[in-house]
Amino acid sequence: MTVNTQSTEQKVVLKRRSPLLETWENLRRSWSGMLGLSLIFLQVLIALFSPYIVPHDPQEMDSKDRNAPPSAEHWMGTDKLGRDMFSRSLVGGRVALVVTVFGIALAMTWGGLTGILLGFLGGWVDEVAMRIVDALLAIPWLLVLLIIVSTFGTDPWIQTLTFGFTYGYTAIRVARAATLDYVTHEFVLAARARGERKITIVLRELLPNVLDVLMVDGAMNWSWMLLGFSSLSFLGFGVPPPTPDWGFMIAKNREILATQPWAVFGPALMLSILIVGINLFADALAKAMGLDRSQGAPV
Amino acid sequence: MIVLIARRFFLASITLFIISLLVFIGIEALPGDAATAYLGQSATKESLKALREEFGLNTPAPQRYLNWLGGFLRGDLGQSMARRKPVSEVIGNQFRNTVVLALAASLVGIPLAIVLGVITGLTRDKWPDILLSLLAILGMTLPGFVTATVLVYFFSIRVEWFPAIAMIPSDAPVSEILPNIILPIITLTFVMVAHILRLVRTNMIDVLTSDYVQMARLKGIPMVRVIFLHALPNAMLPTINVVALTIAWLLGGVAIIETVFNYPGIGKLMINAIGDQDLGLVQGIAMILAGIYVGVNLIADLLTLFLNPRLRTTRG
Asked: Residue B2, CB half-sphere, CA atoms under 13 Å: how many?
């Protein structure tokens, strides 16, 4: 905008728009970001309301109509037990969404705060902790998840804690690296000189500065977590049946892939929509915040 | 230079040591021990005692850790309880099979990713870039088992070009394996290309707008020469680490793909070992896979060191 007079210019300077609002403005202009956000939103709506709107009870077994092809009655056909695949595909993401949303919040909170603290403290504590994080990252993620889940069970609460814990250590790395850019700045020195407590410096001075990096990493991490969740489910270590879950449905219905492809494609499509949506959103969020996210590696 | 290399090796071995501690503690922290895990419901006092004696589970944990680590350093991976065999014997050809799969996917995937990355970088925001970037997002995000299932449906069921599952014994010769694993190779390549392509693209765009490339073009050097001699080498350097991570991921994370295609590799073995509660085997596989991860990253670090003169003088 062009500002001509002195007084309005001052007003503009004083009323600096919040960075969050600015990000949103940028995000709104990105078609891929808005597409991603809409897909996520769609899935959240489906997860919230599907139990009330699905045409059939997802658990109901219609013994006359087993392995039925898609029809007006069953849009995606039925599975081996005669359950309506369209209804099951719609409700199949509820547990995945709840577990990963809480899981990612947990992971980013503990991982993010630990990372900032390590970056701020430095010294041998940081050195030792980062070696441990490196070591943890070297152990295959699937192995860690499988061991925890096969020991402590697949209750959604346990899964939330498991994912929240194991996906936190990548956040430690990200938060620490971002913090290192700031610890030498004057405002941190000034806070130290004022005699602020460490926890105050971490929460009030450093956290707001690395929040954008953490948010982008969190969005990305969310999609990895969803991938992890559905992989466990696919391998049979997910939510116990008969609760419908995409990963397990895909695994089970693979047996009838040749005759009933929609029994597999339905849940696969739903899962893909959510995961692609999250990624498009994460990508656009990074761009809107002026961060480059292409360094992401499969971990 | 020697000091830098020595330092990298030292750090890698420290990491490996910590991994061994974490793996051991992790398994140790599980409720029960290998004997109760293996016997499960059928455990009696006597059978537990006998099994613990047979596998030396009665010694204190630190002692067992040292024994295990010592054995590891001598090349003894420990004992598989469920299979009553040394871990190395159980793993046998399965590890080779995973390497064959990963190598085949890498040989196809890495060059393809670089070529496509350069193309997308050069055609930024035009249709080849948009199309390939979209595909890359799909490759990065779709779970392997979804991609695999779609491929199976179209290429094994609709048209019967490739086998849907690898019906081969674990000790089959490589020449017999390859025709059976076309689909797993395509699945892995898809994921790999997606990751590397995106990075090559970004780096290409960075490099193409840099001063020295502009300079080279202003001097009238032909575009092809600029791309291959000036831009590409510099765009590749930051890619090495991602390629390393991708290879490490291929070796560790292929478990699901191997399961989907019923391919006798180490990833599928890992999942089976957890299903059987075979903690000795799990421990051994965890160490092998983590070791590969550390090793591949070390190689990538050293490669970057050799290729980038600027890094040699700074503290690694």
From this structure: 0
Q: Scanning every residue of chain A, which has its alpha carbon at the shortest distance from the alpha carbon of B282? A: A143
How would you write chain A as a 3-class SS string? CCCCCHHHHHHHHHCCCCHHHHHHHHHHCCHHHHHHHHHHHHHHHHHHHHHHHCCCCCCCCCCCCCCCCCCCCCCCCECCCCCEHHHHHHHCCHHHHHHHHHHHHHHHHHHHHHHHHHHHHCHHHHHHHHHHHHHHHHCCHHHHHHHHHHHHCCCHHHHHHHHHHHCHHHHHHHHHHHHHCCCCCHHHHHHHHCCCCHHHHHHHHHHHHHHHHHHHHHHHHHHHHHHHHHHHHHCCCCCCCCCCCHHHHHHHHHHHCCCCHHHHHHHHHHHHHHHHHHHHHHHHHHHHCCCCCCCCCCC
pLDDT-based confidence at residue A246 (cuts at 50, 70, 90): very high
pLDDT of residue A117: 93
Indicate the helix (H) or strand (E) that contains B79: strand B79-80
Q: What is the pTM of this model?
A: 0.87
Chain A residue with CA closest to B156: the answer is A258
CA B39/CA B52 separation, integer angstroms? 11
User: What's the pLDDT band for A297 if we cut at 50, 70, 90?
Assistant: very low
**How many CB contacts within 8 angstroms connect chain A with chain B?**
141
B143 pLDDT exceeds 80? yes
Report helix, strand or coil for A3: coil
Residue of A283, A253, A277 lying closest to A266 (CA atoms): A253
**How far is A299 from chain B, CA to nearest CA, in Å?**
7
d(CA A249, CA A258): 15
Inter-chain residue contact A258 with B31, CB threshold 8 Å? no
Q: Which residues contact A187 (CB under 8 A, 6 or more apart)?
A: A205
User: B22-61, pLDDT tens digit by residue?
Assistant: 988 888 777 767 677 677 667 777 777 777 777 777 777 7
Interface test with A, best of B141, B151, B249, B272 (most A CBs within 10 A): B141
Tens digit of each residue's pLDDT (9 = 90 or more) over A68-107: 788 877 778 888 777 888 888 888 889 999 999 999 999 9
| CA-based nearest residue in chain B for residue A258 | B157
Contact list, B255 vs chain A (CB under 8 Å): 140, 142
Rounded Cα distance between B53 and B68, Å, is: 16
Query: Per-residue pLDDT tens for A34-73?
Result: 999 999 999 999 999 988 888 888 877 777 777 778 887 7
Residues 6+ away with beta carbon under 8 Å from A33? A27, A280, A281, A283, A284, A285, A287, A288
Gap between the Cα atoms of A164 and A159, Å rounded: 8
